[in-house]
């Protein structure tokens, strides 16, 4: 048992070190994703407590968080310089796509919010 | 509910059938006619009743009935009429105007009779149609009756002219050219011929008058007859617009024939029976509904009242329902058609017939006694020992003076329907409940004269028996038109039963075993109602005699349900029962504090995000510093903020279309600005890379 926790601790340490080397922009995006997901989780916890009425509002709230998290992940993939697939895509272009998709998502969300 | 209705209906049916059968009720003209006349003929403000013809008809009716004609209104009529007489008018108007002057007794000083006479004489000479001749001759006769000297130049020729229009069947044509003849025209022609004879005096050849007498006989061959001896004339084979109807035709012929009979020295060969038949026809109309019909009726009856052939006498009964209990006398009136008194007569009751035309053998011919004060012939009924019922009484009227017998028409046998009512005794009324094997019976006597109610109880294995006897005042057994026993349940479901008759008794036996299904298996209290009714029964019974508690077995599954009872039809308009709407229960909402708490909780990750950003070491180094790119950058961020603000507004109050419109503008702007900013950033980073 002690070895297990030891191993876990070592694992976490190494992950932390590796993570420290990621560029700031990617860290910002990661933080954004964590924020979005946390908000979604809080909404789900609320729904679990009080019931799903009105269901459309719940869906809209959760999907907005999840959607924006998904878009942020896409942005991260596209902006990451280590990603060979998107070598030729300028990061500004990816960011523009991110903004546009978010705006569309939020329009739909606002309509569905009721 | 049905209580008074049943009896009334029955009485109505009986009365109606009585009227349809032999002898419609005839009454002479009475005050009812006079008041009806004043209601029907209503003069306008200037005293006229419409056209001149209508005014004449109204005034003539008033004159005959003795209605007051001295009202001030009619002075105006006199004036209008005298104006008509002086101005050139048609012969018809002249005729009516002259008649009105005569009836109202207008002052004749201002009227130029010579001019009128010459106009009328010219009209007679130039006349081409029957009506022209009629009006002009009638006018001349009226002038002569006013006391003026009137000479008819060519009496023979005029007579011939009228006679030329006659047909072989007794009818007349209206003029030489028309092909159709009518009986109505015959009446007019006869009156015109009578006027000629009165005007000419003794100048007319008697043989010509004899020929006309033969025409009248032929005309009377066409008379039509009803079963009770009423006679009338009607038209056949005339144009629809020429058809005048039986009243007008009969009236015209009556006036014509009576006028001609007055001027003919020899008596006309028409029996008194025909005159009486015509009188009956006019009287049987009762009170006519229109002014024209009223005039025809009254005018004809006036001609018949004083005609030279024979004066009709009418027998009428002031009351046709006579009560044995009240010891009513049979009263009979014999008068002329206008109700004036007849000469000394003997009225005898020949026979009394039952409704199936059998003679009441116990009755022998009796002569009625005369009460000179009230001018009524009467007969006491009690000594005759006639039982209750509906009877046809056959009378014969004969004039006491043998010479007078020719002058008056009394008719042969006069049939009148009368009802003799009486008190029906109810005997031996019993009601009993017995077991099905008839072993024991609990009999209760019913006394229907008292108000007592009986109460019984029975179950479905028992029987109910109700029996009674009905006797007439003379002791015979009586069979009423209606005898019904009704059992009514508390829930208002009713059942009707008719007792059977045998020799002298009425008996009803209800075997409840067989009736269980008919009663819809309803147990409980049933009220027993007895209805005994008849037209001649003075004490008809419709009352509840008590109640019976019935114990019936339970209804099986498939049993018929009792019929729904009728709902009071007016309850449909009353207030209805209140509707309690069931609304969708609103969802349970969480308490507000909880919701607000969680809203705060949602903000927390945002704060955590901002703090995290700071810890990572976010900076604004990449923000462009030079003016233009900086502006674009600011505008870019501003644009995004504006879009987000637009979304908030959209959620708060805007609709999708406005939002999309605004979004369109903002989007285009944002695209442009964003493109500039991002391309600038891209170029700077590319420069940094290469540099």
UniProtKB/TrEMBL annotation, chain A:
It holds the Pfam family DAD. It is found in: Endoplasmic reticulum membrane. Keywords: Apoptosis, Endoplasmic reticulum, Membrane, Transmembrane, Transmembrane helix. It comes from Rhynchospora pubera. It is a multi-pass membrane protein. Signal peptide: none annotated. Subunit of the oligosaccharyl transferase (OST) complex that catalyzes the initial transfer of a defined glycan (Glc(3)Man(9)GlcNAc(2) in eukaryotes) from the lipid carrier dolichol-pyrophosphate to an asparagine residue within an Asn-X-Ser/Thr consensus motif in nascent polypeptide chains, the first step in protein N-glycosylation. N-glycosylation occurs cotranslationally and the complex associates with the Sec61 complex at the channel-forming translocon complex that mediates protein translocation across the endoplasmic reticulum (ER). All subunits are required for a maximal enzyme activity. Pathway: Protein modification; protein glycosylation. This is Dolichyl-diphosphooligosaccharide--protein glycosyltransferase subunit DAD1. GO terms for cellular component: oligosaccharyltransferase complex. Component of the oligosaccharyltransferase (OST) complex. The lineage of its organism: Eukaryota, Viridiplantae, Streptophyta, Embryophyta, Tracheophyta. GO terms for biological process: protein N-linked glycosylation. Belongs to the DAD/OST2 family. InterPro entries: DAD/Ost2. The chain crosses the membrane at residues 31-49, 55-75, 95-113. Its main location: endoplasmic reticulum.
UniProtKB/TrEMBL annotation, chain B:
This is Dolichyl-diphosphooligosaccharide--protein glycosyltransferase subunit 2. It comes from Rhynchospora pubera. Subunit of the oligosaccharyl transferase (OST) complex that catalyzes the initial transfer of a defined glycan (Glc(3)Man(9)GlcNAc(2) in eukaryotes) from the lipid carrier dolichol-pyrophosphate to an asparagine residue within an Asn-X-Ser/Thr consensus motif in nascent polypeptide chains, the first step in protein N-glycosylation. N-glycosylation occurs cotranslationally and the complex associates with the Sec61 complex at the channel-forming translocon complex that mediates protein translocation across the endoplasmic reticulum (ER). All subunits are required for a maximal enzyme activity. The chain crosses the membrane at residues 596-618, 630-650, 662-682. Pathway: Protein modification; protein glycosylation. Residues 29-305 form the Ribophorin II N-terminal domain. GO terms for cellular component: oligosaccharyltransferase complex. It is found in: Endoplasmic reticulum membrane. Keywords: Endoplasmic reticulum, Membrane, Signal, Transmembrane, Transmembrane helix. Residues 583-683 form the Ribophorin II C-terminal domain. Residues 428-550 form the Ribophorin II third domain. It holds the Pfam family Ribophorin_II_2nd. Residues 1-23 form the signal peptide. One of its GO terms (biological process) is protein N-linked glycosylation. It comes from the Eukaryota. Belongs to the SWP1 family. Residues 313-403 form the Ribophorin II second domain. InterPro entries: Ribophorin_II_2nd (IPR055375), Ribophorin_II_3rd (IPR055374), Ribophorin_II_C (IPR056790), Ribophorin_II_N (IPR055373), Swp1 (IPR008814). It is a multi-pass membrane protein. Component of the oligosaccharyltransferase (OST) complex.
């Amino acid at each position: 048992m002690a070895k297990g926790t030891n191993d876990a601790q070592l694992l976490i340490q190494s992950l932390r070190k590796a993570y420290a080397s990621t560029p700031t922009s990617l860290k910002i995006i990661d933080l954004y994703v964590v924020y979005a997901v946390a908000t979604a989780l809080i909404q789900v916890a609320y729904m679990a407590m009080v019931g799903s009425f009105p269901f459309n509002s719940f869906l809209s709230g959760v999907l907005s968080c999840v959607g924006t998290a998904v878009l942020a992940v896409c942005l991260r993939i596209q902006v990451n310089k280590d990603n060979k697939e998107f070598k030729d895509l300028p990061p500004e272009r990816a960011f523009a796509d991110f903004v546009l998709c978010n705006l569309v998502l939020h329009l739909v969300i606002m309509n569905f919010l009721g | 509910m049905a209580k008074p209705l049943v009896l009334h209906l029955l009485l109505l049916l009986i009365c109606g059938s009585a009227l349809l059968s032999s002898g419609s009720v005839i009454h002479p003209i009475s005050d009812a006619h006079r008041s009806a006349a004043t209601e029907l003929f209503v003069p306008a403000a200037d005293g006229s009743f419409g056209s001149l013809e209508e005014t004449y008809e109204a005034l003539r009716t008033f004159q005959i009935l003795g209605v007051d004609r001295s009202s001030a209104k009619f002075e105006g009529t006199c004036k209008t009429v005298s104006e008509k007489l002086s101005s050139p008018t048609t012969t018809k108007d002249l005729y009516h105007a002259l008649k009105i002057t005569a009836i109202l007794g207008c002052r004749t000083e201002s009227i130029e009779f010579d001019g009128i006479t010459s106009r009328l004489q010219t009209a007679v000479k130039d006349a081409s149609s029957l009506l022209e001749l009629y009006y002009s001759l009638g006018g001349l006769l009226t002038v002569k009756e006013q006391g003026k000297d009137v000479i008819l130049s060519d009496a023979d020729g005029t007579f011939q002219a009228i006679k030329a229009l006659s047909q072989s069947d007794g009818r007349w044509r209206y003029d030489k050219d028309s092909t159709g003849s009518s009986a109505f025209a015959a009446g007019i022609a006869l009156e015109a011929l009578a006027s000629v004879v009165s005007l000419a005096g003794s100048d007319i050849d008697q043989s010509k008058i004899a020929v006309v007498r033969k025409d009248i006989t032929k005309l009377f061959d066409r008379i039509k007859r009803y079963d009770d001896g009423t006679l009338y004339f009607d038209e056949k084979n005339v144009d629809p617009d020429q058809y005048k109807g039986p009243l007008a035709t009969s009236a015209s012929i009556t006036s014509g024939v009576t006028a001609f009979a007055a001027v003919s020295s020899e008596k006309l060969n028409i029996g008194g029976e025909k005159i009486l038949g015509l009188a009956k026809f006019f009287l049987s109309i009762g009170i006519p509904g229109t002014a024209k019909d009223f005039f025809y009726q009254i005018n004809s009856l006036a001609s018949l009242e004083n005609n030279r052939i024979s004066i009709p006498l009418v027998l009428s009964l002031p009351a046709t329902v006579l009560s044995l209990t009240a010891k009513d006398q049979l009263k009979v009136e014999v008068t002329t058609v206008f109700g004036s008194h007849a000469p000394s007569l003997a009225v005898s009751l020949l026979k009394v017939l039952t409704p199936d035309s059998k003679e009441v053998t116990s009755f022998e011919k009796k002569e009625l006694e005369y009460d000179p004060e009230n001018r009524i012939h009467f007969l006491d009924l009690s000594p005759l020992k006639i039982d209750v019922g509906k009877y046809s009484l056959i009378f014969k009227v004969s004039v006491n003076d043998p010479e007078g017998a020719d002058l008056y028409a009394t008719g042969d046998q006069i049939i009148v329907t009368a009802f003799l009512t009486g008190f029906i005794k109810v005997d031996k009324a019993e009601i009993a409940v017995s077991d099905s094997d008839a072993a024991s019976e609990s009999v209760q006597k019913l006394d229907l004269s008292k108000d007592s109610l009986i109460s019984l109880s029975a179950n479905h294995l028992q029987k109910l028996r109700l029996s009674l006897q009905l006797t007439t005042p003379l002791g015979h057994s009586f069979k009423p038109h209606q005898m019904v026993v009704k059992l009514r349940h508390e829930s208002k479901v009713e059942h009707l039963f008719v007792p059977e008759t045998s020799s002298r008794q009425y008996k009803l036996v209800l075997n409840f075993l067989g009736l269980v299904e008919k009663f819809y298996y309803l147990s409980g209290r049933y009220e027993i109602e007895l209805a005994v009714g008849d037209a001649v029964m003075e004490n008809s019974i419709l009352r509840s005699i008590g109640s019976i508690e019935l114990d019936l077995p339970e209804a099986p599954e498939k049993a018929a349900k009792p019929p729904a009872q009728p709902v009071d039809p007016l309850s449909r308009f009353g207030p209805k029962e209140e509707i309690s709407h069931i609304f969708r229960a609103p969802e349970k909402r969480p308490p507000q504090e909880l919701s607000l708490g969680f809203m705060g909780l949602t903000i927390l990750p945002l704060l955590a995000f901002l703090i995290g950003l700071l810890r990572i070491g976010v900076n604004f180094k990449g923000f462009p510093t030079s003016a233009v790119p900086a502006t674009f950058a600011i505008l870019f961020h501003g644009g995004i903020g504006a879009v987000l603000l637009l979304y908030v507004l959209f959620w708060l109050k805007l609709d999708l279309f406005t939002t999309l419109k605004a979004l369109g503008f903002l989007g285009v702007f944002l695209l442009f600005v964003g493109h500039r900013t991002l391309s600038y950033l891209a170029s700077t980073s590319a420069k940094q890379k290469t540099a």
